[in-house]
Amino acid sequence: MANTQTEAQVPVTVLTGYLGAGKTTLLNRILTEQHGRKYAVVINEFGELGVDNDLVVDTDEEVFEMNNGCICCTVRGDLIRIVGGLMKRRDKFDGIIIETTGLANPAPVAQTFFVDEGVRSKAKLDAIVTVVDAKHLPQRLEDSHEAADQIAFADVIVLNKTDLVTPEELAAVEAQIRAINRFAVIHRTERAALPIEQVLGRGAFDLNRVLAMAPDFLDSDEHEHNDEVTSVSFEVEQPIDPEKFNAWIGALLQEQGPDLLRTKGILSYANDERRFAFQAVHMIADGDFIGPWKEGDARVSRIVFIGRNLNRPRLRRGFEGCVAG
Amino acid sequence: MSESVAQFLLESRGIQRDLDAFVVAACFDRSGTTAAFALGDGTLRLVTLSDRDAWQTVEAHDGAILSLAPDVTPTGFITGGDDGKFRRLGADIANFRSKWVEHVASHPGEKSKGLLACAVGKSIHLFDQDGAKLKELPHPSSVTGLTFDARGKRVAASHYSGASLWFVNAKEDSPRRLEWKGSHTSIVIHPDGDAVVTAMQENALHGWRLSDNQHMRMSGYPAKTATLSFTRNGKWLATSGADAMVLWPFFGGGPMGKAPIELAGGDGIVCTRVAAHPQQEMVAGGFADGLVVLAEVNSSRILPIAPPGRGPVSALAWSPDGSQLAIGTEQGFVALIDLSKR
Predict the structure, then answer these.
(1) Distance (Å) from the alpha carbon of A63 to chain B's nearest alpha carbon
(2) What per-residue confidence (pLDDT) applies to B170?
(3) Does residue B96 sit at the A interface (CB-CB below 8 Å)?
(4) A38: distance to nearest CA of chain B, Å?
(5) Which of residues 2-41 of B touch A (CB under 8 A)?
(6) How far are the Cα atoms of A120, A210, A265, B77, B191 from residue A287, in angstroms, in the given order?
(7) pLDDT of amino acid A7
(8) Closest to B256 in 3D by CA, of B206, B191, B300
(9) How many CB pairs under 8 A join A and B?
């Protein structure tokens, strides 16, 4: 039952990135490559270049707050309508690609796929892909919150225009990206050229694959700057008590939701043979069992936070406090 | 038991087709001689009641049809599509190119001065009966629902943060803004013109009584309400979005502080469409499993009309005299059922 629904859900890829970073170039590459699949493309009316595709929807990004008592729970009202409309011709495409405006905060797009039942039943977020300009990113990060937010939310980062910087500059900009989001996959490109399977069909929001793309859990204790976006992760080897975890994460998301851009975790619950996958976008959380631990694998529970004002010792103590005992 | 009754009715009094495309909407023309089904493949399928086996296919839009209504004339229909076109049978009324025409409405008017309207993005566009543009009415955010009042004097739109009510003949266009925080996703006006009700993103309804600005909140739905339909004299507002048809009383002071009545519930399946009978106090309801029932409001008697199994009901419409019911589902099943006395 759950499986048939999953198969019927249309995968949705979100493309973010500043004006001029190469978002539309990447989009046109995806659309013109011979992959035999058709995509419905949702663009905003301030797009830089024309998009060459049969099914293009031009939209005004309309972000609104949900009346659910959760201050950071914003959704894209236009996407709720568009996804509903596209489902009327479901047989005409294999996936949806949403291009956001340059300054867009990715949170409302992501939250739309968690909060709206109609959208959730028909479509699922596949990955957030952020295109950044190797030359101008340092400046962008100084100018605005949005550039850092777009990197923080990304599952895949296309580090574009690498031909315009020196190897030293490239290494520096990559280090800057890593300081914000240690868990995204980074692809260095010129003119946004990369195999499209690096961008589409990632399943990054699929609970079965949560953290699958997180390379390794480096746990260095670098010092933090309060207003900057950083990422931290923790592991515990003892089994977790589900009630303690729910109480802790619930209170944490409630209290610090606006700062917590993305949270992902794989947990080993006491007396349970299955892995529990957890993810959240700000305060909106989702979690489910995703099948048994593999024989011989260490049953280590891991959690990742990407956000602002991350108090590492406090988060660590909180997570360690969830150990069953 | 009830399934076999429904199967019997469908076979003995209905005609059915599998059209293999999402049925977006169904409606009858104003004379009640022809039924139309608007499909996700861009075609309009027409059935004339005098020859119910002859179905006509009209290529209406290059894309999906998003909205359907009767034309102002006794026969004919108007449609909006995701190809940006606002059309009437056989002719373009307007082309908005890359913008979707998500809602259409018409009113035959008085002294045959009919009106046509469509919603595109944040605007309502009004046209005269010949399709000449009259005016564009702007809103603070995208229009999510569009309706004329019973007399065709006013047109209303739902949108983020409430609804707007416009006098169509006003010299200077300034709407009455009905405000309520949140996203409003469809709209209906009471037949006597004194109440406006919207469905909201948060599985609730909101209403405004126009004479005294009284707010009405109607909540408790497990799902979003997709259709709102007043019974003939405006006594009840029938709604979808729960595992029954939910009817709110609009008499004796209105629905405030009262419980609604629930009809045809108990199976745990969400009601996806409702359509109040145009003549009698009866309501047709369609459910997520494909079941269609007819319910008499006062006696709560239920008559199953189409059995489950053909996809969630996505379109439901009565002929003007209430003798015919048109049904459509997300899987492309359509039926036309003759409920007239024999």
Answers:
(1) 10
(2) 92
(3) no
(4) 14
(5) 21-22, 24, 40-41
(6) 14, 10, 9, 47, 46
(7) 47
(8) B206
(9) 62
Please give the ipTM for the structure prediction: 0.91
- Side by side, the strands of the sheet bearing B313-318 are B14-18, B333-338, B324-329, B313-318
Q: Which two tokens stand for residue A307?
A: 């956000």
Whether domain B2-338 has CATH 3.40.190.80: the reply is: no
> Which residue in B56, B48, B10, B14 sits closest to B28, CA to CA?
B48
Identify all chain A residues contacting B66, using CB atoms and an 8 Å cutoff: 85, 88
Same domain membership, residue A149 and residue A27: yes
Domain residues for A53? Answer: 2-205
CA distance A297 to chain B (A): 41
In chain B, the residue whose alpha carbon lies closest to the alpha carbon of A116 is: B201
Q: Where are the alpha helices (DSSP H) in chain B?
A: 2-13
pLDDT tens by residue, B187-216: 999 999 999 999 999 999 999 999 999 999
The residues, any chain, with a CB within 8 Å of residue A17's CB and separated by 6 or more, are A23, A102, A130, A131, A132, A133, A150, A158
- The residues of chain A scoring below 50 in pLDDT are 1-7, 215, 217, 221, 223
Q: How is residue A101 annotated by DSSP?
A: P
Within 8 A of B123 by CB-CB distance, chain A residues are none
* Chain A residues close to B144, C-beta within 8 Å: 81
CATH number at residue A289: 3.30.1220.10
Measure CB to CB from residue B99 to each of A58, A62, A77 and give the nearest one: A58
Residue pLDDT, tens place only, A168-208? 999 999 999 999 998 899 999 999 999 999 999 998 888 87
For range B235-248, the mean pLDDT: 98
Across the interface, of B22, B181, B183, the residue whose CB is closest to A88 is B22
A166 and A21 in one domain? yes
Instruction: Tell me whether residue A76 is in a domain.
Output: yes
**Nearest C-alpha of chain A: how many angstroms from B99?**
6
Q: What pLDDT, on a 0 to 100 scale, did the predictor assign at position A216? A: 52
- Write down the pLDDT at residue A226: 53
Mean pLDDT in residue range B308-328:
97
- A68: closest chain B residue by CA: B202
